[in-house]
């Protein structure tokens, strides 16, 4: 197998944003009459903010509105500023090391505004990567493979020559559907859940273990 590219998910992999977007979503949706609880959001992790907010809202009989994202992102940005420790330890060193050997892209189901908040927290700009794909760039979100196929295309590779690193079940399913090698990380779901519901090719519990996995491929 000749691996030439790495496609990074962002939330839950490069940055521990899941607790903060959850907090922002619960708080923000209250402004629209939705009193959601944490478990309402779990099925929509990794599927993009439209589903992440729209799914729970619809459960409570409220139709999704684009303004929901505007409100929630503003709350999320404020929360993130209060948590500089949200970036996983060693993230910058790992992605820099990977970028030196492989073509690298961020493929996040989130909207660009959220991706930019996260990249700023990590201390890089979008140009740090060879390509950036957000949920706004594809019609079908994870678990469909579109975002990873687009990311591979933008770095000039077939998906089969790429490794996808993901924390979510929807993301791993999307990676497998794209034909890429999938690496799951146990930041949002347990190893058992990832194995049972998505079956990634490899599972790690720390981003710093990624280079060792890549060396084996």
N-to-C terminal Cα separation, in Å?
6 Å
- In N-to-C order, the SSE pattern is EHHHHEHEHEHEHEH
State the helicity in percent bands: 40-55%
- Show unreliable segments: none
**Rg calculated over all Cα atoms:** 16 Å
Structural class: alpha/beta
Major sheet attributes: 6 strands, parallel
Shape estimate = globular
Determine the strand fraction and express it as a percent band. Answer: 5-15%
* Quaternary form: single chain
Strand order of the largest sheet: 3-2-1-4-5-6
SS field, number of helical segments: 9
Number of beta strands: 6
- What average pLDDT do the residues reach? 93
In terms of topology, how is this protein built?
Blueprint: E1 5-8, H1 18-30, H2 49-59, H3 66-81, H4 91-101, E2 103-107, H5 112-122, E3 131-133, H6 146-154, E4 162-166, H7 169-178, E5 181-185, H8 191-197, E6 202-204, H9 210-216
Parallel strand pairs: 1-2, 1-4, 2-3, 4-5, 5-6
Helix pairs in contact: 1-3, 3-5
């Amino acid at each position: 197998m000749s691996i030439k590219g790495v496609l990074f998910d962002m939330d839950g992999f490069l940055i521990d944003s899941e607790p903060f977007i959850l907090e922002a979503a619960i708080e923000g949706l209250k402004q629209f009459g939705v009193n959601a609880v944490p478990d309402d959001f779990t099925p929509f992790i990794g599927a993009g903010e439209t589903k992440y907010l729209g799914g729970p809202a619809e459960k409570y009989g409220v139709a999704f509105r684009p303004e929901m994202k505007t409100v929630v992102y503003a709350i999320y940005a404020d929360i993130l500023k209060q948590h500089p420790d949200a970036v996983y330890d060693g993230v910058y060193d790992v992605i820099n090391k990977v970028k030196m050997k492989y073509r690298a892209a961020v493929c996040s189901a989130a909207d660009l505004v959220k991706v930019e908040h996260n990249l700023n927290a990590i201390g890089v700009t979008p140009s740090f990567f060879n390509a950036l794909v957000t949920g706004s760039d594809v019609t079908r979100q994870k678990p469909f493979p579109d975002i990873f196929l687009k990311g591979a295309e933008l770095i000039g590779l077939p998906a089969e020559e790429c490794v996808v690193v993901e924390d979510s079940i929807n993301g791993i399913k999307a990676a497998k559907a794209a034909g890429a090698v999938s690496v799951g990380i146990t930041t949002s779901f347990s190893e058992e859940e990832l194995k049972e519901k998505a079956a990634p090719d490899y599972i790690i519990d720390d981003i710093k273990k990624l280079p060792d996995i890549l060396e084996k491929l």
